[in-house]
Every structure is written in C-alpha cells, then in structure tokens.
Specification:
The complex is a heterodimer. Chain A is mainly β. In chain A, about 0% of the residues lie in helices and about 55% in strands. Residues about 1-10 of chain A have low confidence and may be disordered. The chains are: A mainly beta, B mainly beta. The interface of A and B includes residues 42, 44 and 100 of A.
Chain lengths: ~110, ~110
C-alpha cells in the first residue's frame, strides 16, 4: 500500500504558540488530503481537507499547506490551546477512490 | 443527528476464536469503511462498503471479512484470531464515499489473549 509518514512523532508547544505538524506522502498521484485529530478514547475527527489543485486552505485557527513538488503536507494551528492536545493524522487518497492511507500520527502536547 | 456507533466497545477473545464487530453509520450515510489501528502500524484501511457491496479492500488476509446490510449497518468478522489482531477497530461512515467527509465511531478495542 501507499506510505504516508510524519517527520515528528511528538510535538510539544506552549499554550498560545502556533503549532506546525508535518506530513510526507509517497504517492504523487494522490489528489485529496485530509487532516484528522484523535483524542484519547475517541475516533479520529475531521479537521480540514485540501485538493491537489490548491496549495493552501484555511479553516478556523487551522491552515493546511500542500507542496506537491516535494510531496509534503502541513497543518498549522494558530494560538494552540490545551484542547488541541491530541494525535494528528494526515491521510491521502485519490479523489473518489474510496480508500484512504493514513500517516503514523504526531502527538501534540500543549503545555499550559 | 446521532453519530457513528460501534458495538461492542471492548472485547477480549482468545487465539483461534472468531469475532464479529458491528457499526451503525450516521443516518443517511451509505458508505462504511473499516480501519485497524495499532501503535506499530497506525491506521490501516480494511475495506469499504457501499449499497451492500464491497467497493475497495486493503491488504489484509482473508480472515478479515465484512458485509453491509440494506440499512447501511455494517459488520466485520475476524476468524481464527491471532495475537497480532489485537487493535482498535474503527468504523467510518460518509454519504457516498470518495471525498465525502468520513465520520468515525469511537472504535472497538479488541484484545486477543
């Protein structure tokens, strides 16, 4: 299967700082990407998505950046809060392919 | 609207046994996907069902199977359990699959002794 990896398994940030979580994907044909957040004891929760015809997409306090040249995806969280502490996954797929490949996850620790 | 529900939440089995897990999607969602989550392998795609048909399958042995009913509820079955099958099994539903947002359930924690 495809390999979707993350550069940093654990990231610790101070409350109020901005967080950047990175992800490398391996399939240059992938054209749809999603970031998920998973809190302890819960299933993954959709955060934001981006299609390959875009290089940036903004949500509420979150921004996803896509660099297709180097097959890199990042999630930026502004003014990180304690409630942002979770494991974050990136996922890739071919649009309408009905099959997602997930990265191994990055744990975000927000220090008060 | 109720979220995705999975039953049971926790399960303990012994090697060689079989297990059936259940997933009820969000009302109106017709696509159901199953994933296995382990610390070592992360989230891995098992299969996806739509209108009672398996549309896609991951790289898992034939011991892993699933089905979907006419009301979109889905079950997955694992036969001849192995220790390595211990994992969190997650179900996700979406309207039609593809790029539709997937909503995950809380998962079933399976422990194989």
């Amino acid at each position: 299967g495809e390999s979707v990896g993350l550069h940093l398994p654990t990231l610790s940030v101070q409350e109020g700082d901005n967080s950047i979580i990175n992800c490398a994907y391996s399939n240059s044909a992938s054209d749809y990407f999603i970031w998920y957040k998973q809190e302890s004891g819960k299933g993954p929760q959709f955060i934001i998505d981006i299609r390959s015809n875009m290089d940036k997409r903004q949500g509420q306090r979150v921004t996803v950046l896509l660099n297709k040249t180097v097959k890199h995806l990042s999630l930026q969280i502004a003014a990180t809060q304690p409630g942002d502490s979770a494991v974050y996954f990136c996922a890739e797929t071919l649009y309408n392919f009905n099959k997602f490949y997930f990265g191994s996850g990055t744990k975000l620790n927000v220090k008060p | 609207k109720a979220g995705v529900t999975q039953t049971p939440r926790y399960l303990i089995k012994t090697r060689g046994q079989q297990v059936t897990l259940s997933c009820s999607p969000i009302s109106g969602h017709r696509s159901v996907s199953w994933y296995q989550q382990t610390p070592g392998q992360g989230l891995q795609f098992l299969f996806e069902y739509f209108s009672e048909t398996q549309r896609n399958k991951g790289n898992f042995p034939g011991r892993f199977s699933g089905r979907q009913f006419s009301n979109s509820r889905s079950e997955m079955n694992v036969s001849t359990l192995e220790l390595g099958d211990s994992a969190l099994y997650l179900c996700a539903s979406s309207l039609e699959g593809g790029a539709d947002t997937q909503y995950f359930g809380p998962g079933t924690r399976l422990t194989v002794l």
